From TrEMBL:
SUPFAM superfamilies: FAD/NAD(P)-binding domain. One of its GO terms (cellular component) is cytoplasm. GO terms for biological process: removal of superoxide radicals. Homodimer. The gene is trxB. This is Thioredoxin reductase. It comes from Acidilutibacter cellobiosedens.
């Protein structure tokens, strides 16, 4: 570990790995700090069909592995630690972790976002016991069972299609009467005989004894509520939640300018503090996809290199 790094990147998702690759390739001393495992949300995705060049049935884990390999090849260091406090308004940025403290001339925040919960009674209690936020992780547990997918966007519909490989029946629960997913994705879902739809509906409560056994669903138009029970022979069913994400930016509240929890940047990924950049799903942007995250990371690293050269007379 170096005394002062040129660049420290917080987060090892596509944005962070892209930034690490570009920073290290520019001969900066780069450290990527990740609290869990590399890849971010993409590691939970079975198929990445819309990333340019991913024509070999690329999965989230396989694409991430390539990104990690590239960043490592150019010399970016990686470490597992959780940053708990930051002092980033000075010329040298200080990041305090659970394992040790780190110093850098510039910082790129690429902390991403986490799945947004439904927020209903029983959800937390039955997470891991029927409630899931990752089809790739948990689909196998529901082989030949019935599952419900909550949401109507790209992620919800794509994961519903993936679940049909395991479950005998998949029902998409959406609070409106039409999906928000891309038309091409919708068309595939409508053609899949295993997928059904429960329109104008919202999950209000999840019940069970040890595992999910029923849930109460409310009609968003009429207000009528009904309880859906697990098949007697099954004893349980799965509930997969894909209704959006919350940015992982709490550490920077009151320090950086934000909008609804997302970090504000300009088009060059600069925040309101010199030498601090943000990239990927944690920042204010119109599209949160792998391709935009990697783009953000590349831009942030290039701009960080310029900042370091200008500020430290490199």
């Amino acid at each position: 570990m170096k005394e002062v790094y040129d660049l420290i990147i917080i987060g090892a998702g596509p944005a962070g790995l892209s930034a690490g690759l570009y920073g290290a390739r520019a001969k900066l001393n780069v450290l990527i700090v990740e609290k869990e495992k590399s890849g971010g949300q993409i590691v939970m995705t079975e198929e990445v069909a819309n990333y340019p060049g991913s024509i070999e049935n690329a999965s989230g884990p396989s694409l991430t592995a390539r990104m990690v390999q590239q960043a490592d090849a150019f010399g970016a260091e990686r470490t597992l630690d959780t940053i708990t406090e930051v002092q980033i308004d000075g010329k040298i940025k200080v990041l305090k972790g659970e394992k040790r403290n780190y110093k850098a001339k510039a910082v790129i925040i690429a902390t991403g976002a986490k799945s947004k919960p439904i927020g209903c009674p029983g959800e937390k209690e039955f997470t891991g016991k029927g409630v899931s936020y990752c089809a790739t992780c948990d689909a196998d547990f529901f082989t030949d069972l019935e599952v419900f997918v909550v949401g109507g966007g790209d992620a919800a519909v794509e994961e519903a299609m993936y679940l049909t490989k395991f479950a005998r029946k998949v029902t998409i629960i959406h609070r409106r009467d039409k999906l928000r997913a891309a038309k091409s994705i919708q068309e595939k879902a409508f053609k899949n005989p295993k997928i059904q739809f429960l329109w104008n509906a919202a999950v209000k409560e999840i019940k069970g004894d040890g595992v999910v056994q029923s849930m109460i669903v409310k009609n968003t138009i009429t207000g009528e509520e009904k309880e859906i029970f697990a098949d007697e022979d099954d004893g349980t069913f799965g509930i997969f939640v894909f209704i959006g994400y919350n940015p992982v930016t709490q550490l920077f509240e009151g320090i950086l300018d934000m909008e609804r929890g997302y970090i504000k940047t300009d088009e060059n990924m600069k925040t309101n503090i010199p030498g601090v950049f943000a990239a990927g799903d944690c920042r204010v942007k119109s599209l949160r996809q792998v391709v935009t995250a990697t783009s953000d990371g590349a831009i942030a690293a290039v701009e960080a290199e310029k900042y370091i050269a200008d500020t430290f007379d490199v």
